[in-house]
């Protein structure tokens, strides 16, 4: 059994929070650059150029990409042969506290969703998801999630008789919310599981690299079809019109009940 002090998570989460808030993933940067060759709207092209300039400044000056540095989602793949010794949640929250103070990142968490809504002052608690996997390794992913994209998320229990058609209609209907999410966006779609699991599937879909091809051929084709149709909506960069609304669509699925077809959509 491999032993890792939970306190080690503090350093890792702190570093990841700072990195995620000040630098775009290389695949996303490349996709934005490539979209300049596709976008025909002058306003849309100007928005894309500003996105790239903003990303360059944020990386060089170590400043937030966006003023909304969001809440912190932490995804942990925990090997079954690892013992994280100590208080895991507290170690993660301490990393968030340190990062949001040191990086001058906006603190956006309120302790009570109703009757008060007082800010916790340090952007904790983080929202922690742990999956048990084989082996003696631990993988940690940090996703800061802004309020605009979170408010655009949707979940619906669909009729099972309509199958993929129902999912497609739902995604295209909800894709209108991309205008509220500072497009171009990445669209995560979750299908299956249960009411409480499908939103997490949609969010996990956002973690996949843009170059990642779905191993299921039908889902891979469905992702491409949805991407084309979302970009045909004409929402465009910053919602000001154009061809580039989404940089990618990623779908994650899991088994579900015979009477159920849960679906959820999330935006980056």
UniProtKB/TrEMBL annotation:
Alphabetically list the UniProt keywords. Answer: 4Fe-4S, Iron, Iron-sulfur, Lyase, Metal-binding
- The main enzyme category here is lyase
Q: What is this enzyme's EC?
A: 4.2.1.2
* Entry keyword annotation includes 4Fe-4S: yes
Domain Fe-S hydro-lyase tartrate dehydratase alpha-type catalytic intervals = 11-268
Superkingdom of origin: Bacteria
Which GO MF terms are attached to this record?
4 iron, 4 sulfur cluster binding; fumarate hydratase activity; metal ion binding
Family the UniProt entry places it in:
Belongs to the class-I fumarase family.
Question: Can you name this protein?
Answer: Fumarate hydratase
* Organism, scientific name: Candidatus Aquicultor secundus
């Amino acid at each position: 059994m491999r032993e890792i002090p939970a306190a080690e998570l503090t350093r890792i989460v702190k570093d990841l929070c700072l990195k995620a808030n000040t630098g775009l993933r290389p695949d996303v940067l490349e996709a934005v650059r490539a979209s300049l060759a596709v976008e025909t709207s002058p306003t849309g092209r100007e928005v894309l150029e500003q996105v790239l300039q903003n990303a360059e400044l944020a990386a060089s000056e170590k400043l937030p990409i966006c003023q909304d540095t969001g809440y912190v989602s932490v995804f942990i793949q925990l090997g079954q042969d690892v013992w994280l010794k100590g208080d895991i949640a507290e170690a993660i929250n301490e990393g968030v506290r340190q990062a949001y103070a040191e990086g001058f990142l906006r603190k956006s968490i309120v302790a009570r969703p109703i009757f008060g809504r007082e800010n916790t002052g340090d952007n904790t608690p983080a929202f922690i998801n742990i999956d048990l996997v084989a082996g003696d390794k631990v993988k940690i992913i940090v996703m800061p999630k802004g309020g605009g994209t979170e408010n655009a998320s949707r979940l619906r229990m669909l009729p099972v008789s309509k199958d993929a058609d129902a999912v497609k209609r739902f995604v295209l209907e909800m894709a209108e919310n991309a205008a509220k999410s500072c497009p171009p966006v990445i669209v995560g779609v979750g299908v299956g599981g249960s009411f409480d699991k499908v939103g997490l599937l949609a969010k996990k879909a956002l973690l996949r690299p843009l170059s990642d091809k779905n191993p299921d051929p039908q889902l891979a084709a469905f992702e491409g079809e949805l991407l084309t149709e979302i970009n045909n909506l004409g929402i465009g960069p910053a919602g000001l019109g154009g061809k580039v609304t989404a940089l990618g669509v990623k779908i994650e699925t899991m088994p579900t009940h015979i009477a159920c077809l849960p679906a959820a959509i999330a935006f980056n």
